[in-house]
Amino acid sequence: MHRRDFLKYSAAIGAFSALPLWSRAALAADRPTLPIPGLLSPDAKNSIRLTVQAGKSTFNGKTATTWGYNGNLLGPALQLTQGEAVTVEINNSLAEETTVHWHGLEIPGDVDGGPQGVIASGGKRTVKFTPQQQAATCWFHPHQHGKTGHQVAMGLAGLVLIEDNESRALRLPKQWGIDDVPLIIQDKRFGADGQIDYQLDMMSAAVGWFGDTLLCNGVTYPQHANPRGWLRLRLLNGCNARSLNIAASDNRPLYVIASDGGLLAEPVKVTELPMLMGERFEVLVDTRDGKAFDIVTLPVKQMGMTVAPFDKPQPVARIQPLRIQGSGELPDKLVNIPALPNLDGMTERWLQLMMDPMLDMMGMQALMEKYGPQAMAGMNMAGHGNMGNMGHGNMNHGGMNHGKMGAGFDFLHANKINGKAFDMNTPAFAAEKGKYEKWTISGEGDMMLHPFHIHGTQFRILSENGQPVAAHRQGWKDTVRVEGGRSEVLVRFDHAASKDQAYMAHCHLLEHEDTGMMLGFTVA
Predict the structure, then answer these.
(1) Please, are residues 114 and 503 in contact by the beta-carbon 8 Å criterion?
(2) What sign does the dihedral 259-265-269-270 (CA atoms) show?
(3) Nearest 5°: phi and psi at 512?
(4) Are 359 and 511 spatial neighbours (Cβ–Cβ below 8 Å)?
(5) What is the pLDDT of residue 25?
(6) Rounded CA gap, 313 and 250, in Å?
(7) Hey, which residues does 102 pair with through a beta bridge?
(8) What PROSITE patterns does the database record attribute to this sequence (predicted)?
């Protein structure tokens, strides 16, 4: 055991023994302990080795096949440093091909790990890159075209922690797994046999794949004992299709200190924190009062996502402060965020997100057939094709086959950008390296939620879904909300991406991405 790990675990054990006996018994017996992903740093040769593998995990008392990186489920947290090169060797021991995409990293297209970066079953791929961006919590996950949703649902996701001197100088909580804690939040659905029940069908292609079980770091409603003081939570919405709304059960404030691309200019106090799929936020929570509370997700207004138990607040993790005192602080100022440049004369692009009306209608019919009208999340259906007067009783049950493939309808290419489903061989446009561009992403005429993600950059949001940008979303971002309105982002690409290894821009509702709502673009 490394000395640093020994000290860390000694501190954790010491903290645990500081609990009174009754509290320790409650902590041990009541809930599973929050699993903490191991930190994996480059070795003496600046190398990291990842193996994509199958394993077994237990949920609800039943054993399921799961996939993970260097383990049964999820993966380690890779610890990288700004300006230091790293070589990652990825070995694929799965029975199918996969890719590893570095979500949020500003790196060249040939190592970005999009759908072209295929690693065959039994094969390996080695990528080398140097993160130049500021400190941030990013993540890695598969990007296998048509199978991203399935592979993420099976458990493939890991964190990337980029460090820099500026963040190290701040007196933020920094003890990994003690007062600096990752919460990877995902929902899952299981079959009667206990296996992960993933389907890409008409219903999931329209509204996404969602489950009835909420997991945090791979377990249900775990607990974490932290020193009494400021607790840093690194939140990742790792769900395929479910947006979240994070809060504390006792309504204590969350102080947002970082978004997708790193630290904000200053902390932003919120009591609710909406999170799109793929987004990360870092928050500080004051636990100096020593009182236990839950991190919860509140109900969201998103089609399919109000099905029980998510019609009520759901606990993510239990926080139980210890008697020992923490040492981290909440700074008044964090980092400098540059002012937005003048937008005059810059290249502008328009990306229109569209779902095939037939998919829209048949998917929603299947949703209501399976779960009833409450699954519509109170959506105003009037004027949406013939859905406005579609009662639960008059649906074409025979033709739907419970949301499975409609006769002859190609739902695998039914989601589009600018009228086209994804074509891996034909990039949609070429961006110029190092030049700012203004992109408008429109969901007008479409009622679904589209969290839009752009590879190879951390951008600034100019307007979001037709609204001014919330304070905690004004920093560096790689995902923006598009839902029936239009969002404007200021992008710049500092690395090249060729036709063969193009960057992607796509909806991060994974089933929308898998069924066409994605485009490739080059940078030179």
Answers:
(1) yes
(2) negative
(3) -70, -45
(4) no
(5) 43
(6) 12
(7) 140
(8) MULTICOPPER_OXIDASE2, TAT
Say how far apart CA 228 and CA 19 lie, in whole Å.
Answer: 12
Going from the C-alpha of 272 to that of each of 179, 249, 251, the distances in angstroms are 21, 11, 8
CA-based nearest residue to 103, from 282, 281, 279, 235: 279
Per-run averaged pLDDT (10 residues), the chain, 524 residues: 48 50 52 97 98 97 97 98 98 98 98 98 98 98 98 98 97 97 98 97 97 97 97 98 98 98 98 98 98 97 95 97 94 96 95 95 94 81 41 35 55 96 97 98 94 98 98 98 98 98 98 98 98
What is the helix (H) or strand (E) element at residue 509, kind and residue range? Answer: none
Give the separation between CA 401 and CA 389, rounded to whole angstroms.
Answer: 21
Burial per residue of 334-370, b for 16 or more beta-carbon CB atoms within 10 angstroms, e otherwise = bbebeeeeeeeeeeebebbbbbbebbbbbbbbbbbbe
Check residue 306 and report its DSSP letter.
T
pLDDT of residue 409: 86
CB atoms within 10 A of CB 53: 17
> What span, in angstroms and rounded, lies between the C-alpha atoms of 196 and 244?
21
Token digits of residue 340:
């937005």
Tell me how crowded residue 44 is: count the other CB atoms within 10 A of its CB: 5
Type of residue at 154: M
61, burial (CB in 10 Å: exposed 0-12, middle 13-18, buried 19+): exposed
Query: Which residue, chain included where needed, has tokens 């001197």?
Result: 165
Burial of 309 (0-12, 13-18, 19+ CB in 10 A): exposed
pLDDT of residue 378: 63
Q: Would you state the structure tokens that stand for residue 236, as one six-digit string?
A: 């990742």
Q: Is 521 helix (H, G, I), strand (E, B) or coil?
A: strand
Q: Find the helix or strand (DSSP H, E) in which 88 lies.
A: strand 86-92
Q: How far apart are CA 382 and CA 389, in angstroms?
A: 7
- CA 28/CA 340 separation, integer angstroms: 50
Give dist(CA 437, CA 426) in Å, integer. 21
Q: Give the C-alpha separation, 375 to 203, whole Å.
A: 12
- 202: nearest Cα among 6, 377, 355: 355
DSSP letter string, 366-429: HHHHHH-GGGGTT---TTSTT-TT--GGGS-HHHHTTTS--TT--GGG-EEETTB---TTS-SE
Q: Outline where 216-325 has alpha helix (H).
A: none
